[in-house]
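Data availability (excerpt). The following record was deposited with the supplementary files.
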Amino acid sequence: MLLNDRLSELRTERKLRQEDLARKIGIARTTYAMYEQGKRNPDYDTLQKLADFFGVTRGYLLGDTDNPNEEIDAELKNLLEDPDFMVAYKEYPGSPEEAKEDLIGFLKLIKERDERKKKK
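Predicted structure:
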């Protein structure tokens, strides 16, 4: 299932209008409508806002998994235990927890992109 299908399905299940959803996440209705039409893709921050709003993962929205609440997979957990990764994490500016969340988000984004490439 593609992003536009997932967005439409989730919004419809919650009986929301496009305008209401767009307002809740801080974007224009026309922008959101383009996401559902498959004419435009959200940026990382907007994708995360949508995932948070619906209570699902970005991977679920992108169609990489059919499990809407899939946790960080084993590969990412292993990465968090990698000493080299932890050195980079400790050198990252900002609070440690914020840095960790940013790096995990970035790694998930890269993984999701690579999985979408494999499907093509």
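Summary of structural features: The first helix runs from residue 3 to 13.
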